[in-house]
Amino acid sequence: MRHEDLIKQMTAKQKVAFLTGKNEWESREYPQFGIPGLFFSDGPSGVRRQEGAGDHLGLNPSVPATCFPSPSTLANSWEEQLEEKVGEALGREAVLQNIHVLLAPGLNIKRNPLCGRNFEYFSEDPYLSGKMAAAAIRGIQKNGVGACAKHFAVNSQEERRMALNAKLDEKTLRELYLTGFEIAVEEGHPQAVMSAYNEINGIYANENEFLLTQILRKEWGFDGFVVTDWGGGNDFTEGVKSGSTLQMPGCGLDSARELLQALEDGKITEEQIDERVDELLDAALTIPKKVAEKRQQLENPVKVYSENHKIAEEAAEKSAVLLKNEDAILPLKQDRKIAIIGDFAFEPRYQGAGSSCVRAIRVETIVDLADKMGLPIVGAARGYQRNGKEDKKREKEALELAEQADIVLYFLGLAESLETEGKDRKDINIAQNQIQLLHELARKNPNIVAVLSTGSVVNTWWKGDCKAILLDGLAGEAGAGAVWKLLTGECNPSGKLTETWLRSYEDTPSYPDYPAKERDLVYKEGIFVGYRYFDKNHIPVSYPFGYGLSYTTFAYRDLRTDENGIRLYVKNTGPREGSEIVQMYISLPESRIVRPEKELKGFYKVHLLPGEEKEVAIPFDDKTFRFFCERCGKWKTEKGTYQILVGASSQDIRLKSSVFVEGTQTETEESEDLRQDKQNSLKKEDKKGNSAKRILLNRNDPLSSMIYARNPVARLIAHGMKRKIDRAEKEGQPVDLNTLFRYNMPFRAIAKMTEGMVSMKMVDSMLKMINGHFCSGLCSLVKEFFRNQKANKAYEKELKQNI
Ligand code: BGC
Prior knowledge:
Blueprint: H1 4-9, H2 12-18, E1 40-42, H3 71-75, H4 80-96, E2 101-103, H5 126-141, E3 146-152, E4 165-167, H6 170-188, E5 192-195, E6 199-200, E7 203-204, H7 209-219, E8 225-228, H8 236-242, H9 254-264, H10 270-297, H11 301-319, E9 321-325, E10 338-341, H12 343-346, H13 366-370, E11 377-381, H14 392-403, E12 407-413, H15 432-444, E13 448-453, E14 468-471, H16 479-488, E15 501-502, E16 520-522, H17 531-536, E17 541-543, E18 554-562, E19 565-572, E20 578-587, E21 599-608, E22 613-619, E23 626-629, E24 634-637, E25 640-649, E26 652-661, H18 667-680, H19 712-730, H20 737-744, H21 748-752, H22 760-770, H23 774-800
Parallel strand pairs: 1-2, 2-3, 3-5, 4-6, 4-16, 5-8, 10-11, 10-12, 12-13, 13-14
Antiparallel strand pairs: 6-7, 9-14, 15-17, 18-19, 19-22, 20-21, 20-25, 23-24, 25-26
Helix pairs in contact: 2-9, 2-10, 4-5, 4-11, 5-6, 11-16, 14-15, 22-23
Beta-D-glucopyranose binds at residues 42, 56, 103, 150, 229-230, 355.
C-alpha cells in the first residue's frame, strides 16, 4: 500500500465515506489529514465544468470551453499524435478550470449503428479504439490532469442502459470488447477507469471482480482507481470488494453506513476497504498538486483558448473523409459560381448531446466565413427545416438559387436530437425532407457537392445525386473553417472511416435484437461485428472500414515482412501533397478456430509531397497473432502461415505477403479449441416478450417497468413518461433527457442520484407502494426519510470530529 500511514490515522467511518462522492462532481476531502477532494468533469469533446446545479446529462449550462471534433470524427484521422495533441489541449483547459479528472475518453465498441452514443466512441475495431484512446489519455495526463477511460465494459446500447445485461462469451468479451481497454491501459496508463452501467453475464460491471480485479488490475497492471458511472452503483459493498473505488455522484452517507454494517457483519474486511482507500488517496494526494503547479505555469487563458481553437480546426481538417469525388469536382475551381444550401451551413451540427455537450466558445459557420473565401458565391439558402418538417418556401428559394450556380454546396446531416446519450436512433436515415430536396436540387443542377454532418453511420442510397461527398462528421467549433479549407483544396482530405458504412440497417448482425427491450442483450454475433462480419458473409457495403479518398493518389510497393513487422514504400503519385493511412491486416486462411477473415493489427499515416516516396514500417506486437482460447482461459497463438494484407482500406488491399508463426499450441489443443469455440457460440434465444401481467418490481427494475406495476398511479406515471418521450420523437423535438434518463433508470438510482435525500430503504418503501402496499409503503417512506436525514447529519459531524 502506498499510503499506509495515513490510512492508519483514518477511522473506519472516514474510510468508507471517502469511497462515496461528496456531491455531483466532487469526491470528499479531509482537510484534517491534508487530503483534498477531486473535481470531476466530462469530456471527451471539450471540458464541461458545471458551476451551478450539476447534472450528468449536459442539461444545465457549463463554463465556456473549446469544442473539439467528436471522438467518432477525430478517430477518422487515424492519427495518434493528433489525438494526443487534442488530449493535451483538453488537459490544458481542464487545468485552467481547476479540474482534476476529465471523464474521457469513451472507447466502447460500436456494435450497432443505432447506439445513440456512437459519436462519443472511436470505432468498431478494438485495436484502433485502443490506440486512439491511449493517445488521448497520454495527452490529457501530460498536464497533470487524470484521464478516465470509460465505460468499462460492453456498453453498447443507450436505452435501458442501467438495466441491461450484456450476455456474451469470453472470447468475444476479450477479443472485441476488452482489447481496446487493454491497449488504453497498457499504453495510456489512465489514472481512472469508469465502470459501465450494465451487467455483464449477470454481474454489474461495477461489481465484477473478474473485470475490475482479475483483468484490469492483475492482468493489465492498472494501478489507478475505478469510479462508477454516474448513479451506476448498485450494491456498494460488492462494488468495493470487487475493485470499484469510488461511487459517484455523492449520495449522502447511506451507502457508507451500509458498508460499515457489512464490515461489522464480516462481509468485507478492513484490508479490502483499505486497498480502495489507498487507490483513491493516491489520486487525491497527487493530481490536485500537479494541476495547481501546472496552473501556475499556464500563461494567459485567452491565449490557451485561441490556440485550442486552432487545434480544433487542425483536428477537423485532418479528420474529414472524402467519400466521393466524381469528375474531380473538388477542390473547387476559383471561377465556378457557388450556391450554399442547407440549414447546417447557417447553424452547424458540430457536437453530440448529453454529458459530453460543451458550451462552445466560438462556433464558426459556413455562411459567416463564406465572404472571406474569395469565391464567386451567388447566395445561401437554408433549404429545409432540420426537424424534418416540410417547408415549401425554403425549398423554392433553394431551388432557384441552385439554378444560378455552377456548383451547389449542399449541407446535410443528422439533427441534434438524433445523436444523444440516453437514447438510440430508430434508423440510419437522414431526414426525408433533406433527401427530397437533394433530389430536386440534382435535377436543377447536376454538380452537387454534399457536406455531411453526422457522428454516426447513415445510409447513403442518395449518393447518386451527388458528384462529391465530404464527411465532416461532428467537427467541433472550428469545423466550418476546416470545411472551407478542404473544399478549396487548401487542405487535402486525409481521413478514413473507422466504421463500416453499411447499405441498409438490416445488414447489421445485431439488427434482429437491437435495442433489447428487456433485461438481456445477447451478443449473438460474437466477434463478428463491423467489417469482421461483412467480410465473412460477403455482404456489400456502401463504404468499407478504412475507406477515404484524397485529392492525390498513392502507390504502394515492395512489401517486406520479417518476424518483427513489415516495411514498404508509399509514393505520392498525384499533383498535390497529401497523407495516406496505410493499414495492416492479418489473416490466417487455414485457421482451425473461429476467426475473422482479416483483422486490423497496425496502421500508419504518412505525409507525402507530390512525387515523394517514403518507407513505412509497421511493427508486429503482442496482439498481432493472438486469439483468446476459452478452453484454457488464455491468449494463445495459432501455428500457421499468416497472410499480411496491406491496404488503403479493408477492401482495397494493395500488397500481400506472408509470415510463418510457430504458435503456442499443440495439434490436440487446437482441435479442442475448435470444438469449444463452436459450442460456445451463443444459441439464438427468444426475446422475452412483454408480459401483460402485473409484476412485483424490485430495486433493479427500470422505472419504465412501472407499466406492469400493481399500483395504478405508478402505471399512470410510467405511461405519462412514455407518452412524453413518444410525442417529442413524433414531433421531431429533442427528447427531454431528464425524462428519458428517469424512464430508463432503475429504482436504486433514485437513492444513488439524489445527494443523500433518498436512502435505499426509502427506495424499498417506494417499491412497496408501487407493488400494491401503498399505505404501509408510505408510512415507512416518511419514517425512513427522517431517519436518513438524522443519520446523515450525525455521520457528517463524526467525520469532522475524527470519530
Ligand atoms: C455518462 C458518463 C458521464 C457521466 C457524468 C453519465 O451519464 O454515462 O459518460 O461521464 O454521466 O456526466
